[in-house]
Amino acid sequence: MSGEKIRIGIIGGGASGSMACKACLEEGFEPMVFEKNSYTGGLWRYHDENIDGVASVAKSTIINSSKEMTAFSDFPPPKDFPNYMHNTKMVKYFDLYGESFRYEKYVKLRHDVIGLEPNGDYDSTGRWKLTARDHTNADKITEYVFDGVMICTGHHVQPQVTTFKDQHLYTGQIAHTHSYKRPDQYTDKKVVVVGIGNSGGDVAVELSSVSDKVYLSTRRGTWISNRVGPYGLPSDISFIRRHTNVLFKYLPYNILCTILESVANRRIDHEKYQLKPKHRILSQNVFVNDALPNCILSGTVVVKGDINRFTAHGVIFAGESKEIPCDVVLMATGYKLKFPFISQDLIRTTNNKVELFKYVFPPDLKHPKTLAFISLVQPLGATLPIGEMQCRWFAQLMAGKRSLPTRQNMLADIAVKQHAMKRYYESERHTIQVDWLNFMDELAQHVGVKPNLLKYFFQDRELWRALMFGPALPYQYRLEGIILD
């Protein structure tokens, strides 16, 4: 490639795609972004249509992490934006970010990637052949060759649908919350929402103001957190701090869970609200919702157990014998990890698990650094800064400024991560979980941008205090950084 720019193919034009594009430009690469829709912004750009294979938020969706914790590390959100941004504000933020480096210039809209495979010279070069269908040009199919590829399609695309006994008998409507857009289509209807993750809880709360009756069905129960933390601060600003992370790291697991469960129960007694699960609070992704307890208290949302079976006109819940009539059943049962454009022989997903070093690089490939999965994580915190750090890492690797560990070391790290997953109850939802600050520091170590706390303790005590006792904002990962020649 002497004298030629490194060419990078980026699949997906959402937030991760924009971060990937910027990281590549900063290293002098030539990025090309493939976006199957007619717009950028990914799942955050609301649209009324329900399109198969296309993620989209509901009309009312507000992000669960605060704006400063969600920020790009070199591009803070506007000061006048609220702490918790509505999806329209998120899209505006992404647009402003993209404008700062002319993102649209590098995006091929309505280009659907239908194939990705090693190029003929892969063994010697690590290059990839990408095949795309151009919906702007009579569905013309074109092949491209790239030195590296970044997969930025996320993990909220392919709905995971659960099947219950006698479901075929039911004459009402069954849908996944993937297709849920706005509440008015469920006005005066009796609705059962299956699943109490963020989507299920949010939908149940929103429907409670328009539907005749809302039942929230949960197999295990859940622990609830809210956006507003101590003293009215955003909860992530309050708790994601380095000094509290020390406690999280070194306190015995059961003691830590007991403390956190006590905090959660001060707001609502989970047992009295029929929400208390058998698992500990750190064995799940905590459900964030400010309004559900009020809805339960006022009877507009009724918590039920798992569905035992369907009838022609409703459902019967576990432990009950009486039929509950309902017009609609909404499945908030999560998503499958799926990459239809790449062969299972290259990247195998089993039970929603995929073996990737730091959830980015496939260790079994001959040239693992040339294929990266971005933002394929479910953190206890904001996803955006993690994706950005992964993009910076990939770009440094492709520029020859960093190198990956050996295959054996990468596999060993994957095994450690899989062992850590055992703290979560077994579920296809809990396969890509990470603790935000620990994982950010792990990635930052590879990128060479982990804050040097010891240095700041001696050289800048005020900055050290802010880093140690203040919120662990993404901006701290721009303090360090050595450009390797």
TrEMBL record:
- The protein's superkingdom reads Eukaryota
Required cofactor(s) = FAD
Which Pfam families does UniProt cross-reference here?
FMO-like
**Record's keyword terms, sorted:** Endoplasmic reticulum, FAD, Flavoprotein, Lipid metabolism, Membrane, Methylation, Microsome, Monooxygenase, NADP, Oxidoreductase, Phosphoprotein, Transmembrane, Transmembrane helix
What are the GO BP annotations of this UniProt entry? lipid metabolic process
The enzyme's E.C. designation: 1.-.-.-
* Classification via SUPFAM superfamilies: FAD/NAD(P)-binding domain
Q: What is its main location?
A: endoplasmic reticulum
Q: Name one GO cellular component term.
A: endoplasmic reticulum membrane
Note the topology in the membrane.
Answer: Single-pass membrane protein
Where is it localised?
Endoplasmic reticulum membrane; Microsome membrane
GO-annotated molecular function: flavin adenine dinucleotide binding; N,N-dimethylaniline monooxygenase activity; NAD(P)H oxidase H2O2-forming activity; NADP binding; trimethylamine monooxygenase activity
Quote the function comment for this protein. Answer: Broad spectrum monooxygenase that catalyzes the oxygenation of a wide variety of nitrogen- and sulfur-containing compounds including xenobiotics. Catalyzes the S-oxygenation of hypotaurine to produce taurine, an organic osmolyte involved in cell volume regulation as well as a variety of cytoprotective and developmental processes. Acts as a Baeyer-Villiger monooxygenase on a broad range of substrates. Catalyzes the insertion of an oxygen atom into a carbon-carbon bond adjacent to a carbonyl, which converts ketones to esters. Active on diverse carbonyl compounds, whereas soft nucleophiles are mostly non- or poorly reactive. In contrast with other forms of FMO it is non- or poorly active on 'classical' substrates such as drugs, pesticides, and dietary components containing soft nucleophilic heteroatoms. Able to oxidize drug molecules bearing a carbonyl group on an aliphatic chain, such as nabumetone and pentoxifylline.
For this protein, the record's PANTHER family field holds: DIMETHYLANILINE MONOOXYGENASE (PTHR23023)
Q: What is this protein called?
A: Flavin-containing monooxygenase
